[in-house]
Design goal:
98% helix; 3 helices; 357 residues
């Protein structure tokens, strides 16, 4: 096999593929033509059958007329009348059947129209109810929001009044504490003054007694006087000890009273704090419930938005798919066109080569 035969063989390969595709296109066109012809044939066939039926009716009519004339001529009018009567009856029954059939079809059509109207009416009713439910939901939400706002303002006012009351109580307690401090300092000052005065008086008495004793010693007083003075000192010490014990008991009693007062104030403070903690816990629970309710409502709103986004995304995806299929069709069409151009050029080239050979 020479080089030209090989080149011719390779040049004929695209022609073979092109011929195969031409055959498939031709078979497809033939099928389409056959379908078109078949449809046209069916239409013409129905038209021909209709004309045949009309001609048949005309022929039968003429035939009946001729037969009637013949029977009249033959004197068979009664039978002709009976036959015509039967024929009319059959025609009437046929017309009635056709009429009933047409009425039945019309009834079905009207029924479908009524059903369609009912469906549309139900749909409108559902839409109206949906709008009303939506309005009710919006109204309830608005009322709840307003109620929460009122509750919040009321709680704020209540807290403000409690805060002011607490400040006032604190000022009163501070005032009482300062008053107690002042009284205590006053008592201590008086006590110090009494002590100083007693000390001065004791020194003064001791000085006088010493001077008196010195004078008496100088005068030669006896030991009995000293014993009397000793007994007197003992009685004085005893009185002072009793006075000291009494003052100690008085001080302990005052300390116990102050401790009871302090414990009472502490219990009242703890009770107020406990009540405040209970109120704070209730407010916290209310805020938690409110937050959970808002989160649920926000979640529903987010889900609704997510559904809307999903629908939009699906619409965009469908649009992209349509555009992609369109681009794919256009690309295939361009490729087919290019292949045809290539095949056309190859055919022209082969034709030139064939002419050259």
């Amino acid at each position: 096999m020479c080089r030209s035969d090989v080149a011719l063989l390779f040049a004929l390969l695209p022609l073979l593929f092109y011929g195969k595709r031409l055959l498939s296109d031709a078979s497809e066109r033939a099928e389409n033509t056959r379908l078109i012809r078949f449809n046209g044939t069916e239409r013409r066939k129905r038209e021909r059958e209709r004309k045949e039926r009309e001609r048949e009716r005309e022929r039968k009519k003429r035939e009946r007329k001729r037969q009637r004339e013949r029977q009249e001529r033959e004197g068979k009018k009664e039978r002709v009348k009976e036959r015509e009567k039967r024929e009319r009856k059959r025609e009437r029954e046929k017309r009635e059947r056709e009429k009933r059939e047409s009425e039945r079809k019309r009834g079905k059509r009207e029924k479908r129209e009524r059903e369609k109207e009912k469906r549309s009416e139900r749909e409108r009713e559902r839409e109206r109810e949906k709008r009303e439910r939506k309005k009710e939901r919006e109204k309830r939400k608005r009322e709840k929001r307003e109620k929460r706002e009122r509750e919040r303002k009321r709680e704020g006012k209540k807290r403000e009044s409690e805060r002011k009351k607490g400040k006032e109580e604190k000022r009163e307690r501070e005032k009482e504490r300062k008053e107690r401090e002042r009284k205590r300092e006053e008592r201590e000052r008086k006590k110090r003054e009494r002590k100083e005065r007693g000390k001065r008086e004791r020194k003064k008495r001791e000085r006088k007694e010493r001077e008196k004793r010195e004078r008496e010693e100088k005068r030669g007083k006896t030991r009995e006087r000293e014993e009397k003075r000793g007994k007197k000192r003992e009685r004085k010490k005893k009185r002072e000890r009793k006075e000291k014990e009494r003052k100690e008991r008085e001080r302990e009693r005052k300390e116990r009273e102050e401790k009871r007062e302090k414990d009472k104030r502490e219990r009242e403070r703890e009770e107020r704090e406990r009540k405040e903690r209970g109120k704070e816990r209730e407010r916290r629970q209310e805020r938690e419930k409110e937050r959970e309710r808002e989160e649920r409502e926000g979640k529903k709103e987010r889900e609704r938005k997510e559904e809307g986004k999903k629908r939009e995304r699906k619409k965009r995806e469908r649009k992209k798919k349509r555009e992609r299929r369109k681009r794919e069709r256009e690309r295939k069409e361009r490729e087919r066109k290019e292949e045809r151009e290539i095949e056309k050029r190859e055919g022209t080239k082969r034709e030139r080569e064939r002419k050259m050979f």
